[in-house]
Amino acid sequence: MTSSEDRIRALPLWNGVVTISPLKGGISNESWLVEDRNGRHVARFGKDYPFHHVSREREVMVARAAHEAGFAPELRYAAPGVMVSEFLGAKTYGADDVRANAARIAHMIRRFHTEMPKHVSGPGFMFWAFHVIRDYARTLAAGGSRMAAELPRYLDLADRLEQAQAPLPIVFGHNDLLPANFLDDGDRLWLIDFEYAGFSTAMFDLAGTASNAGMTAEESDELLTSYFGDKPDQAIRRSHQAMQCASLLREAMWSMVSEIHLSAPGVDYVAYTAENLDKLEAALETYRTQYGKL
């Protein structure tokens, strides 16, 4: 069997001696740091994942568009199953960094939402969290998931969270704003990993940013105020809190599906499912305290 390092060395873009070392952090893809005479690069392996609505061809298009628009490192090579991007040497954010830079992040998200439609091409892709949750439920039922008995409860919850959404314009969203997908080179912020990018509502990126970083209500208000340019009203706050719950439910169900269909070295999907379900229960309790029963 050909090793990942052999596959990397066989790519046709290198100049001179190549050194390769693994990069940690991904929970569904495999990434490597590669250095040659032209500099440092990130080689990333990943297949199409229909069960996660992931198309690598679409991801390549978005990565190129995001670089053109000034949000992402340069994509230097792409072939089926592999992408090679510029290595920035920037700081990868953790949750504390996201909370400490809420205003900067909000401004970048706003620009991403408004600028990216000018650069993306090809068939449009709609990412609607509640559709994803419903489709995940079908996948989990068909796959005999250990969580199958909970699916009716998750679907009922998704319906109620969807009903709590305030109407907002359609934007082009990243839709996977985990802290590690923000990079900071000391001068500016960057975004990486566009597997789930597509037309969406701004609220999913705003809620995902907040829930994935464990923001307080005050920090979430700063994020929303910076994004919208004014303090959020009660409808936007309620929508945001409900979408945080939906974001955590979607992430938990992503992990449940991954339990069945994925295997990544060192990744415990069962533990990741439990972690996100615990976060979901805490977020639901916060919602009920502020807005009453769903």
What do you see in this structure?
The protein has about 290 residues and is of the alpha+beta class. It is about 50% helix and about 15% strand. The chain is built from ten helices and ten strands. It has helices at about 5-10, 55-70, 95-100, 100-115, 130-140, 150-165, 200-215, 215-230, 235-260, 270-290; strands at about 20-25, 30-35, 40-45, 75-80, 80-85, 90, 170-175, 180-185, 190, 200. The strands form three sheets. It has a five-stranded antiparallel sheet, covered by helices on one side. Strands 6-8-9 form a three-stranded antiparallel sheet, with helices on one face. A hairpin with a 4-residue loop joins strand 8 (about 180-185) and strand 9. Helix 5 runs antiparallel to helix 6 and helix 9 (about 235-260) packs antiparallel against helix 10 (about 270-290). The N and C termini lie far apart (about 50 Å).
Radius of gyration: 19 Å
Question: Could you give the distance between the termini?
Answer: 52 Å
Which stretches of 5+ consecutive residues score pLDDT under 50? none
Q: Which descriptor suits the 3D outline? A: globular
Largest sheet: 5 strands, antiparallel
The strands making up the biggest β-sheet line up spatially as 1-2-3-5-4
What is the subunit organization of this protein? single chain
- The number of helical elements comes to 10
